[in-house]
Write a structure and sequence with these properties.
Elements lengths: L15 H7 L9 H7 L4 E2 L8 E4 L15 E4 L6 E9 L2 E9 L4 E3 L4 H14 L5 E8 L2 E6 L4 H4 L4 H11 L10 H11 L1
Antiparallel strand pairs: 1-3, 2-3, 4-5, 4-7, 5-6, 7-8
Length: 192
């Protein structure tokens, strides 16, 4: 007999710092310089003729009030639709991709062809065995930032399919995640 799983019973990461600890193999996506290099997108540590938009080189959001001082880099000004997308991934396979249009501040029900292709190829290349949610911010077809959790804009709304996948992805296991140094220390203190 299966027991009903409530959202409160799930092991959902609450902020980027928690994701940084949990997904140590994939934390490189928070480093914009590496993210842009992976896509062959030009950036510069200083303002240049081509790169005029200043942005944080790394952007981690925390509910715990942790402070970090990111370096700044300069990128090109991108043109195109500003979309947030969250891919629900189980063992490297995308279940669904949800879209949020920043220009209208609404969730989009239709997939955006080139953007879906870009996200699918990005996930296939860099997250082959990953289980979790990968959220990307795109301008045009450029992935300008990635977080390893659900975008807050998409967390406010959900449909039956996304809730079902969320429960499957973040169901608490008897075995804890032992990825980051903090998790290893915590695990050792529990078993000793």
């Amino acid at each position: 007999m299966q027991r009903k799983i409530e959202i409160e019973d799930l092991d959902i990461p609450q902020d980027d710092v928690e994701c940084w600890e949990r997904y140590s193999k994939h934390r490189w996506v928070y480093d914009k310089m590496r993210l842009l290099d992976a896509q062959n997108i030009k950036w510069s540590p200083y303002e240049s003729e081509l790169c005029t938009v200043r942005t944080a080189g790394m952007d981690l959001h925390s509910k715990k009030g942790l402070v970090h001082s990111p370096a700044y880099i300069y990128i090109e000004k991108y043109n195109g639709q500003h979309i947030l997308a969250s891919a629900y991934i189980s063992k490297g396979d995308i279940g669904i991709i949800r879209y949020f249009d920043k220009s209208t501040n609404t969730e989009s029900q239709e997939s955006v062809g080139n953007i879906e292709l870009r996200i699918t190829s990005f996930v296939t290349m860099y997250f082959p065995k990953f289980t979790g949610i990968v959220s990307v911010e795109l301008i045009g077809t450029y992935i300008v930032s990635v977080i390893l959790r659900l975008h807050p804009e998409l967390a406010l709304t959900a449909n039956t399919e996304s809730i079902k996948l969320l429960k499957r992805i973040y169901k608490k296991n008897d075995v804890a995640h032992i990825n980051g140094l903090t998790d290893q220390i915590h695990h050792k203190s529990l078993i000793s």
